[in-house]
Give the backbone structure.
Amino acid sequence: MRGEATRIGDGINRVDGRAKVTGQAKYAAEFEAEGLLHGWVVSSGVAKGKIATLDTSAALAVEGVVHVLTHENRPRLAWFDKSYRDEDAPAGSPFRPLYDDAIVYSGQPVALVVATTLEIARHAASLVRVTYKTEEHETDLAARREKARKARPGKGGYEPPPKPRGNADEALAKAAVKVDAAYESPAEHHNPMEMHATTVVHEPDGALTIYDKTQGVTNTQTYVSNVFGLKPDQVRVISPFVGGAFGSGLRPQYQVFLAVMAAQVLKRSVRVTLTRQQMFTFGYRPATWQRVALGATAEGKLEAVVHEAIGETSRFEDYVEVVVNWSGLLYQCDNARYDYKVAELDVYTPLDMRAPGAVLGLYALESAMDELSYALHMDPLALRLANYTERDQNTDKPFSSKELRACYAQGAARFGWEKRLPTPRAMREGNKLVGWGMATGIWEAMQQKAAARAVLSIDGKLVVGSGTSDIGTGTYTAMTQIAASILGLPIADVTFKLGDTTLPPAPLQGGSWTVASVGTAVKAVCEAVREQVFKLAKKMKGSPLAQASLDEVIFAGGEVRLARDPAQAVSIAAAMRAGEAFTLEEETSTLPQLQEQAKYTRATHSAVFVEVKVDEDLGKVEVTRVVSAIAGGRIVSAKTARSQILGAVVWGIGMALEEETLMDHDLGRFMNHNLAEYHVPVNADVRDIEVIFVPEEDEVVNPLGAKGLGEIGIVGVAAAIANAVFHATGKRVRDLPITLDKLL
Amino acid sequence: MSASERTVATEGTTAAPATSHTITLTINGAKKQVEVAPWTTLLDLLRESLHLTGAKKGCDHGQCGACTVLVDGKRVNSCLTLAIVKDGAEVTTIEGLSAGDALHPLQQAFIDHDAFQCGYCTPGQICSAEGLIREKRAKTADDVRELMSGNLCRCGAYSNIVAAIEEVMGACTRERDGRGNGQGRHAVGGGRGEER
């Protein structure tokens, strides 16, 4: 069998691969329970107002319908907002399903039909009759832009825009060359392939076992406990496999609320799965308007950066994300000013979606940089290099590491950037216009507190666990690899467990921080086990390691070996037997080295190079080639790391060319709420994508030196594509997605 | 507000609706008689009644391909297929693609090429790829991309999916041409390949 490598950095096959290709991996809606009932959600048909009448009699008359939950018959719920807050909640009052008769957005759940079979529940749900007293709604960001206001901070990880430096507006007015443009991007929905689902098992003692689609089991556990007044130890949340999430599972969504409520009321096990249409009735990437103005000297030195953004939010919460801040730290510029506001609309609260904020801010900034390069008659890459910075001017701190120059150099070389003809429309193949564009990407390198437990058995098997998740990112594989490497065990002898509140707690899986956070805890706990093994190995009668210290030995092949003479070795099993230890167990919690980290700005960087071919007659854009060069610190698991970037580039293609959730503002309702009309990239949309990981050492970010890769791959891609489209066609499209109608 | 006035009154009485019919399916090689309502889709039958949850529901509208299974050797969206009209058919799901511990070559190739991330679309991708290979329509990587475009992968593993399928397709071609190394075996539950 392949995949016996145990070193950090090797490209091994996914350890959960076999479960996934054989259909054995179980997702939230696939767990069984005795007498399981099925819930089907009834969604509101209007955007704002009150429920006037809600008639469930026809639904209840259907044979097999057990109950219809509504705001009129719901059980008592927590009173205070804080009970409904979760780890990713922004400032405001979180939405409460079935709380009262108020309708605050279209698609809001208004009833849950619970029946003995899925089909009966679905049919009966269509019989629930709801009438509304409607009120005027506002859902159009463009119409509400003037009413935008300062956002309330309060969401974890959010940094308000930095204070301005210099005088950007004055410098802009005086600049020899300037560009000033607005960029717009629509609402986008995460649309993981697995729809949100929860199976709640009502245990005989009244405790709940909840199989939930979530990016954090602890988050769901806390939320359910607080909202329903349960003790956390009565609520076990399990989530071994998550069919994609991309941020959609960062907050407990209403299906878990409704499934728990039904289980509590009926004292039965209940499953609620949302429909694909209902996947458009909670968080999404907010529609955002941006203005970027850049001023430069005739030689291309940046003199002024102005970046303003307005994002949509709901009436009840201030969703915030870091959109504009990046513009003051990516390039050297002494005059910078930022503005970030939110506009309240009658919609659900937006939600973090892969590289939230950065993906938008960098789309605008890197489009503007491209526009500036043409205004300067300068190569786009040369312009970036002319304004390269080794210091984050927003905070006046150095970067803990920054190999962006190497990204530019290696990416450009692999792409063949030097062969680019500078003039738009200069390159073509038959009736296809060829365009080459590039952009820079940046994302934070973060670390959170995390805990892990490790148990080494005398048979040489190691089980490590932490309550993190694997949404497809490769957590299982990366953690197994870290653990195996530290104890020198074959991959097959190491099992990593996650997605269970009985395991030591881990942060939400988001922000690209899982390897940095959970990986650090796994490393620490395995090192603690290693120390225990070493002590036993030393103590053995006649041990060849009696005089050795820990840094003089290596762990390999199930043995502790003297580094300078590997023949001098003690097997782990023998050491444990001699020490009468059948198992060795450790549990550790790790924290970031905040003091040291605070001295630096910690970030991943990327350079993305894109080739598009645009059909001159039809305006159809094909992304034929992408080279993405990433500086992400140390790569822990090479194969899954590459897949993270490949997938994120595909997301960038979707963002640039396809994805847009269209609102009918008369109805205040998303129109294309399905996968036929909400376009995501399909196989035929994706051609050659090459990923380069630039070597990058970093001892500040965390003990592994890994910076995280979940988000960086998408940042910059939409701008690189938009820039390539301009290069191909001479048309600058400043509102995403770049659909063919905008090129004709 | 209190808990419901009307709760557990009618439960348990409708496990088998009056309109249900008995059909016979050969599922992963085993002949089964199952009771189905006329509106039950093949996907819901597999997932909810037979607990074969390898076939996934991603849209329930034939838009994503996650539910792809092989019916009489051809790939179909099981969410758009009423179970009752497939009386007598042979159905192969991801659970029945390989026999025993040995993986089907596509399953192994998907692992080797990391042709998935979250794994949710994967059973559908693999069943679809098996259907594609049986169709013998794809000659190039571009053909594979086009003919696999009914199977969405939101994680964006497409280039690895194409690489995995190409590897197995190449092995199949070699086997047909008498240059095989035995890696190209892709027999599925006795289904019939479509000649074109």
